Amino acid sequence: MTWNVSKVRADFPILDQKIHGKPLVYLDNAASAPRPRAVIDAVARYESESHANVHRGVHTLSQRATDLYEGARSKVRDFIGAGSDQEVVFTRGTTEGVNLVMAAWGRANVREGDDIVVLRSEHHSNFVPWQALAIEKRARLRIVELTPDLTIDWNSLKEALSGRPKILAMGLMSNVLGMLQPVAEIAAMASKAGARVFVDAAQAVAHLPLKLSELGPVDWLAFSGHKMCGPTGTGILWARRELLEQMTPWMYGGDMIRRVGDQESSWNELPWKFEAGTPNISGFVGMGAAVDYLSALGMERVHAYERTLTEKLFAELARVEGLKLWNPPLSLGGARAPLAQFTLEGVHPHDLAQFLDAEGIAVRAGHHCVQPLLSKLGVPATTRVSLSFFNEPTEIDFLVEQLGRARRYFA
Ligand code: PLP
To answer: Annotated catalytic sites, by residue?
Structure first.
């Protein structure tokens, strides 16, 4: 495959700098991805030429702002293959998407004695809201365990779905394990058992073509703009129109109403029923530009290039003495996010991250918002390296060289 990585890198101004006198090697993409110039420029252009409030105004600027804001919605619709703009709700991010569903659907539908099912590998943002709902409703939070190779334990899933499952919440790609979960099979089992299915696509959306039609009987899907080269404070919640229509609003205020009376009010059409208050207009203009940018690169091509990086990353890390990977082995096959988490014998992950930062390498150390998983594995913290389509194979070589140095230094 031809992938002109130098040309792609040049799209990201932030990469062209030195950290502690060394060229920046950005390997923390799973936490947040840099923005390409196209996104930065689209936001700046909007702010300097078109900013006004959306939906309400008759004047030219308001119409321009509304067109840009709503235009971004249509771009996202096409990007994920949603049925209509009405199914694309703008949020602040994945976390808000989960909380919206928990509040607007969960509170109305989950009752005492019901089961809420989550995977062991969920990010806190797709775990804690369900845990809170379970406590509030006296429901049971059931956790689907992983096998020793860190993939789904199908027996545990069957067991978790054997009671009164109301909802199953799962990440499409864990932010520390990286592999693509067999979502269609899991969703089919959950749906057959009578549960609704919520999918957290925060990581997956940045690494592969995401087509709703290929995910099986999924009811909701959420992701964040900042993981896919868009601005922070932008996110998407998708659900089918009929389901969104059944759900009551979870936030009240301007823009989400049709008519306000003294004692009661009625709600705006979808998706605005779930978008109370003045939204993050410039953010979504940037999100639209991010979708254009990724679409022009081609998510199939992005995924193919990142696959070569992932293979190299795993092969090189395997050569580092004293390094233990906490990921499902690559030999299992399947699609992956280009990331790995590991521990290095004798070196605390935070010390390692600091050591690497001194060399210009940005990685993440800690619990990565997956404490239920790391506690179960018995590792309080790991170091995570997460790549993107602008990373070069030589950056992996440099990382591995520095890991060897770190080991000798801390020994
Ligand atoms: N889910 C996963 C798998 C993530 O990696 C993250 C962010 O790290 C989130 C959810 C939460 O995303 P946000 O903080 O953008 O709401």
So the answer is: 369
For ligand 1, the distance from its centroid to the CA atom of residue 48, given in whole angstroms, is: 31
Q: How is the chain split into domains, by residue range?
A: 5-30+298-410, 42-294
| 42-294 has the same fold as 5-30+298-410 | no
Q: How many angstroms separate the CA atoms of 60 and 46, rounded?
A: 13
Residues 6 or more apart in contact with residue 309 via CB below 8 angstroms: 338, 387, 391, 393, 396
Ligand 1 atom having least distance to the Cα of 368 = 8
DSSP annotation string for 135-162: HHHT-EEEEE-B-TTSSB-HHHHHHHTS
Q: Do the strands 165-171 and 196-200 form a parallel or antiparallel pair, or are they unpaired?
A: parallel
pTM above 0.85, yes or no: yes
Pocket test for ligand 1, best of 227, 232, 370 (most atoms within 8 A of CB): 227
Q: Quick check: 153 and 146 in contact, CB under 8 A?
A: yes
The torsion of the CA quartet 392, 396, 401, 405, rounded to 10 degrees, works out to 120
Sign of CA dihedral 303, 308, 311, 314: negative
pLDDT band with cut points at 50, 70 and 90 for residue 1: low
Quick one: which atom of ligand 1 is closest to the CA of 227? 15
For the chain, the average pLDDT equals 97
pLDDT in tens, 18-47: 999 999 999 999 999 999 999 999 999 999
CATH number of 42-294: 3.40.640.10
Query: Can you tell me the distance from the alpha carbon of 199 to that of 403, in angstroms, rounded to the nearest whole number?
Result: 35
Tell me the three-class secondary structure of 1-43, residue by residue. CCCCHHHHHCCCHHHCCEECCEECEECECCCCCCCCHHHHHHH
The architecture that CATH gives domain 5-30+298-410 is Alpha-Beta Complex (3.90)
Residues at CB less than 6 angstroms from ligand 1: 93-95, 123, 125-126, 171, 175, 200, 202-203, 224, 226
Ligand 1 centroid distance, CA of 123 (Å) = 7
Name the strand (E) or helix (H) holding 114: none
